[in-house]
Design a protein that fits this description.
Blueprint lengths: L6 E3 L9 H5 L5 E4 L2 E4 L9 H5 L5 E3 L3 H9 L3 E6 L3 H4 L5 H11 L3 E4 L1 H17 L11 H10 L13 H13 L3 E7 L4 H6 L7 E4 H10 L31 H7 L15 H10 L1
Parallel strand pairs: 5-6, 5-7, 7-8
Antiparallel strand pairs: 1-4, 2-3
Length: about 280
């Protein structure tokens, strides 16, 4: 059982500067017991308070102990690697990254982008048959929670589709069986919220910061690895699903799957402020 939500306050470090309170547009922080506390039922775990706190009092929960426990249980543990890893480790080729993750203990490494491609196909199929209206993507858990918790009147516009992480988790379950543990590796704090759900196909979600710390603990340098022929993505490399981290990447992949002559407008927004401004309109 998790002790903390994905973002929490370290009381001893909080200096009551209230910067996080001022920066949070969703008013998900309150002063309690002389420190600024996250309000779980209002928070969408976007990470704004973590990046703005000048003393590091806002913490991201580490799920590395949970992942280490999975390995101690002698389970087969599979990595779901977000496509944005190429920005986190620039100029690192895939075989070296895969070799590093396999040295950490992962049985195989698979691209979350495969799940993104399933989501794009499902989105295109839904839009091709949908009645005119507004449809909001459910790829981003922070956006989904923003709608559910703060703009419930827009909830009917959320597409009834999984996120790429969830879709990829189900794909890996079909391929590897239920005895396999799946760990997501990516930049997003809110993915931890998805992994916490009782019916989640993912056992845990690690941020790239956690993954870097783990590599350092094990004295592994991805750039220094010498990959073997088996160090390749399972079951295959993704195609255009790797565009999802880019502005408009999902829109591009969905449009490539829509039937010719499809009439409709698509818009994409980045960052919570941009999303909030768009939803307000």
């Amino acid at each position: 059982m998790q002790t903390h939500k994905p973002i929490f306050t370290e009381h001893a470090r909080c200096q009551d500067c209230y910067k996080c309170l001022r920066e949070c547009r969703l008013k998900a922080i309150r002063v309690e017991h002389e420190s600024a506390q996250v309000i779980p039922e209002r928070c969408v775990f976007c990470g704004t308070c973590v990046s703005t706190c000048p003393v590091g009092a806002k913490k991201v929960r580490s799920d590395l102990p949970k992942v280490r426990h999975l390995f101690r249980q002698q389970l087969e543990v599979v990595a779901s690697l977000a496509p944005s890893w190429v920005a986190e480790w620039p100029d690192l080729d895939a075989p070296r990254m895969i070799a590093t993750l396999r040295k950490l203990g992962f049985a195989v490494v698979s691209e979350t982008a495969l799940g993104a491609e399933e989501v794009s196909a499902a989105t295109a199929a839904l839009l091709a048959q949908a009645a005119p209206g507004v449809y909001l993507s459910t790829a981003c858990p922070s956006v989904v929670e923003t709608v559910r918790r703060h703009l419930p009147e827009l909830a009917p516009t959320l597409m009834p589709l999984l996120s790429p992480m969830q879709a990829h988790g189900r794909l890996l379950r079909r391929l590897r069986g239920d005895a396999t543990a799946i760990v997501f590796l990516g930049p997003c704090i809110a993915k931890k919220l998805e992994a916490d759900e009782d019916d989640a196909p993912i056992e845990a979600a690690l941020t790239f910061a956690e993954l870097r710390a783990w590599m350092t603990q094990e004295r592994l340098d991805p750039y220094a690895e010498r990959p073997e022929p088996e160090d390749r993505f399972y079951p295959e490399s993704a195609s255009d699903g790797g565009r999802y981290p880019l502005d408009g990447g999902m829109v591009t992949t969905v449009h490539s799957r829509l039937p010719s002559g499809f009439r409709g407008q698509s818009m994409s927004y980045s960052g919570l402020n941009g999303v909030l401004d768009a939803l307000a309109d």
